[in-house]
Amino acid sequence: MAGEGKGDPALPSPSVRRSGSHLTLPRLPGARPCIPKDFGHGSVVCVCNATYCDTLDPLVLPAPGSYVKYESSKAGKRLERSEGRFQSSLRTPGNAAGGWRCHRGTPRAPRTESLEFSPSSHAGPCGSGELQLTLSLCPLPQIPLLCRALAMSKRPLLLFASPWTAPAWMRSNGDVRGKGTLKGKAGDKYHKTWANYFIKFLDEYAKHNVTFWAVTAQNEPLAGLFTPPQAPTIAFTAAQQRDFIAEDLGPALVRSPHRTRLLMLDDQRIHLPHWAKVVLGNATAARYVAGLAVHWYLDAIVPPGCSLEATHKLFPDHFLLYTEACTGFFMFRFAVSLGCWERGDHYSYSILTVMNHFVSGWTDWNLALDLEGGPNWVKNFVDSPVIVDGSKDVFYKQPMFYHMGHFSKFIPEGSRRVGLHRSRRCLLCQLEHVAVLRPDGALVLVVLNRFGRDVPFGIRDPAMGFIETVAPAHSIQTYLWHQQ
Question: What EC number(s) has UniProt assigned to this enzyme (predicted)?
Fold first, then answer.
């Protein structure tokens, strides 16, 4: 729960860095330290305002023979940078967690961002009852925000969109809220009009120079049956989604001028591999589908090997992408928990787990919310990596933000997962990990320690040598190095 912190820290000049009780100049231009604030939830947030926010030094990869490490911890480190050199052998052969050896492996697809929180509903084109959809887009605050984000980003942003509901006149219950289906069946006027709705959406955004990399066929087509009555949703079975894609949505996208990919499912992995078998088992539907969208909320129910990996083995030409994740939802006591390390830890554990089971990217749902975990017009308040306190004109970067940064800041689009061979297992000090090869040839290793004790371990790259190191209690580390 959001609460009062232990005083508001003064935001320093951008030109200084705190180190214990001393202030020193940053090593490289652009670095700014975290200004910590403790709300009593186990760790700290970093305080930012309109003129000051912590940043990293520009990433400079070390020369061959050296490595760079970034570390965040429950104790308060936030992407703290250090450097070291490879050794010719391990000084301490009996490391508690053993060691890892890298070898090259599986390709990864692009990572993406997401936003679906608003004080009001934004259903798309205005109007009702018009099967020809000669309509224009209602003014939306998302468009200028998207344009600013696209202009500011140093890398291309891949946007995707997911529909929650069709207009009331297309729905079986005659209301945009509550549980319902599209009227009729695939191939009829309602389904073709709804497919055309997707195209009109893409057309109108394109007029503002906003293009979408992908759309999903429907947000949570089955989980929507369990949402609150006021939530907007359309129910589809796997067979209904298959037929809608094959007869209506797929052909409409192909005929359109947009090169937008189509994602199926967009629901929990408990539906895999069954949902994939039904949709992708149909050759007509399969040729329109680029990948499978997955949500994380029920991941604890089914192991990734039985769902994600099984689906990949059946349909290796269709990528898997996690399209929604957040914490603080209905089963949690508090929506917003400022400084909660465990929620960030949950993010990293999920990312590491699914990346090791053929998932290409992972998307946070919210990006930034207020102290209540909104705004949200159906009062679905949850937590977020960034929390805004409008009354003080500040925002707080949560541990979740930095956990995500250990991946997104160092693993660019086009990176490929590489294999890791563990030489020894430790049941009481298990470290989670993933390794990738960047397009520039650098290797990245992310290591998560979820335990309350330090864990020593070693890293072996046959081309470079050994790194003997330690994962501190409740920490996440990112290692980067170039091979010779």
Answer: 3.2.1.45
Count CA atoms closer than 13 A to 402's CA, side-chain side: 32
Does residue 95 carry a pLDDT above 50?
Answer: no
The tens digit of pLDDT for each residue in 166-194 reads 999 999 999 988 888 999 999 999 999 99
Q: Report the distance separating Cα 234 and Cα 216, nearest Å.
A: 13
- For residue 219, the cross-strand partners are none
Q: Which domains does the chain have, with CATH numbers?
A: 62-108+415-482 (2.60.40.1180), 142-324 (3.20.20.80)
pLDDT tens-digit profile of 200-252?
Answer: 999 999 999 999 999 999 999 997 677 677 788 899 999 999 999 999 999 99
Give the percent of the chain with pLDDT over 90. 71
**pTM given for the model:** 0.87
CA pseudo-torsion sign 286, 104, 157, 236? positive
Give the chain's radius of gyration (CA, Å).
24
